Amino acid sequence: MVLLSACTGEPPAPPPSTTTTPPSPATPPPEGLTGVQATGGIGVTVLLPTVGPTLFDADRGAVATPPGYPGGEVGLTVVRVGKHAVLTAYPPYTQNSEPFEVLEYTGPSSPPRSLGRAWSVAPDADREGVWLIRQDAPDDCRLQHVSFSAGELGRGQPASCRTQVRTETAHGLLITINSGSVESTDALIEPSTGRTVRQAPRILGVAGDWMLLDGLTDLTLVDLRGNRSTQLGRPASGAAPTVVPSREGTVWAADFANPTYRNTGTQVRDIWLLRPDGPTWEHVPGMPFVTEHLNRGGGFDWSAAGDLVLADGVLAAWHPGEPQWRLGQAALPAGNWSGLAVLF
């Protein structure tokens, strides 16, 4: 038995080859994201994991609530899979004893397509399907590949029920082993065989030919084509960043967010861009800033046009090389939701 445990458009225009020095810790960040409201709007529509999910236009607000999704005492998460979106419905505030319902978004006026139940879901390498951790018995789980067009691609292979699948690239499937425990570790594996390609205590992300590892003080960038490693200094202090690669994988957004700025309840967001082929860091305009949306009502993703899209009070878009953010005009809905998937 093999034991396993455990989201594409024109590339963004290159910015000036400079790296900005972060502000002194003694300088308090400004309140809220700054930018300009673009004439004609910013042209961004996202799917928000509200209950039920909301199709949201950055300038017009909520434009649809797709039918057929679970309501009531339920939480939703959303992941973009290429041009698709997949939602997971889970019971909040409880110790979960059963896998979650996984649903493919099919449009603003049609009900979702069920992908069955699973403990976790992740995009496949082609972004035309997902990997799932299925459960067949209390201690009997398996890793299965499901295509949006062709359905289940075989039964899969045995896996630990404590596997979290995260994303697949041409170099393998990123998973977390013993997810949710202090013994958790990350690995890149061959999903067809379970063979470990690379393992590390904390893999922040994998995209294209690159892998980013977290360390005690620095980060490590790994070129998977030749297994070459480069040490990177952190451009900002704080815990491990949340990393979201662009759709083509050539530039990564890394949020060095701090939910307890200066040991207070103040939340601060601080996004930097990493270009792995440099490697170089670039400070995103308007960063850092004080926010109320690190834990709810926020998130970031990339559009097909190469814009970084941020949810923080409103939707905002920024193309690398631009001097400032373009702000949407509609206020985002309140609630406990977090995360988003940029559809167009």
What brief labels describe this structure?
mainly beta, 5-stranded antiparallel β-sheet
Can you walk me through this structure?
With 344 residues, this protein is mostly beta strands. It contains no helices and 32 strands. The protein has strands spanning 35-36, 45-48, 54-57, 61-64, 75-81, 84-90, 100-104, 113-118, 121-123, 129-137, 140-147, 151-152, 157-159, 164-169, 172-177, 185-189, 196-200, 203-207, 210-214, 219-223, 228-232, 242-245, 252-255, 267-269, 271-275, 280-283, 289-291, 298-302, 308-312, 314-318, 325-331, 341-342. The strands form eight sheets. It has a five-stranded mixed β-sheet, with no helix packed on it. The radius of gyration is 20 Å and the shape is globular. The protein starts with 34 loop residues before the first strand and ends with a strand. 43% of the residues are buried.
Q: What's the structural blueprint in terms of helices and strands?
A:
Layout: E1 35-36, E2 45-48, E3 54-57, E4 61-64, E5 75-81, E6 84-90, E7 100-104, E8 113-118, E9 121-123, E10 129-137, E11 140-147, E12 151-152, E13 157-159, E14 164-169, E15 172-177, E16 185-189, E17 196-200, E18 203-207, E19 210-214, E20 219-223, E21 228-232, E22 242-245, E23 252-255, E24 267-269, E25 271-275, E26 280-283, E27 289-291, E28 298-302, E29 308-312, E30 314-318, E31 325-331, E32 341-342
Write a short abstract of this structure.
By secondary structure, the protein is mostly beta strands.
**Inertia-based shape:** globular
Number of strands: 32
Over all CA atoms, what is the radius of gyration? 20 Å
Straight-line N-to-C gap: 42 Å
- Beta-strand portion reads 35-45%
Q: Can you summarize the main beta sheet?
A: 5 strands, mixed
Strand order of the biggest β-sheet? 1-31-30-29-28
Number of helices: 0
